[in-house]
Amino acid sequence: MNKWYDSDETDNNIVISSRVRLARNIRKYPFSYKLSEQQAQELIEEVKNSIKDSKTVFGDSFDFVKINEKSDIEKYSLLENHSVSSELINKNKPAALLLKDDETVSIMINEEDHIRIQTVFPGYNIKKAWELADKIDNLVEESVEYAFDEDYGYLTSCITNVGTGMRASFMIHIPLIEMSGQIENLSQAISKFGMTLRGIYGEGSEPLGGIYQISNQVTLGKSEEEIIEALKNVTNQIVEQENELRKGVLKERKIDFEDKIFRSYGILSNCRKISSKEAMQLLSDLRLGIMTGILTLENDVSIHRIMMNIQPGNLIKYMNKNGSPDERDIQRAKYIRETLTN
Q1: Per the domain annotation, does 63 fall within a domain?
Q2: 247 located within any domain
Q3: Cβ count near 45 (within 10 Å)
Q4: What values do phi and psi take at 154, rounded to 5?
Q5: Is the pLDDT of residue 196 over 70?
Q6: Which of 38, 108, 128 has the alpha carbon at shortest distance from 66?
Q7: pTM score, two decimals?
Q8: Counting beta carbons within 10 angstroms of the beta carbon of residue 334, is it exposed (0 to 12), middle (13 to 18) or buried (19 or more)?
Q9: Count of CB atoms situated within 10 Å of the CB of 276
């Protein structure tokens, strides 16, 4: 079964992926931070059972993952693949994950809220992500009673999620907006429309390789359709701004632009040691070069997949050992060289 991040759509658009996340709580339990160990375990089983027969609905199976029984490396690999949040992997109380085999769906149990239903699709597919999230939400609700108020909507642990409980987001690659120093202005501008710009792994994370997440901040008083439409409108403007900057660079500084991209390719295809931060920046240049038609790779390789695989957790899994930072930098360089040139 191919994963969502294996799709060509992650590499041929400024929008890398589309995500919808729904926060839900079960009425009969206290919020996650007040759950006892026993309640946390009971809740996990209840949610697990609510979709145990989902194969008849989705045609695919879900893997059940007990987060607390996973190693740190396995947890960080799940985070780097965008299957879980940092909140979930750092939970001390019992927490779990239901992960669809193509990883388009992850249901986090006992995160900040009892249930976080997340759907991810490659490219500009926010409608598909919402439709699937809504389908799963309805399936779970057949078995459990959600905490819901007629006036306020879905009740959540954090007041900012009350209402629809929805966070819709795009992961976007905007290196030229970043290089032009316009990120701060962009962040302030979109906040006026109820949107926020975050790092590659969402809230509290840093951008890497010019990759950011844009998502809604407001959930109360708006419908899911209104949230998605507003997100699309703002994102379309950002995409247009990035494209205009790319056209300007190609017209006014093409040789400098080409030089930067080919130098990045030269380093990546020959380096013997490289950090994840430097590698992400150089891979960002390659992705930009491919999208603008400056660079063509002979072999069929996904730059986005390389970006995911060189992160510490995934790299350690690839190495099959938890080496030192120097060993990881050496192995990272080897993996990139072989992937780009073989």
Answers
A1: yes
A2: no
A3: 11
A4: -70, 130
A5: yes
A6: 108
A7: 0.92
A8: middle
A9: 18
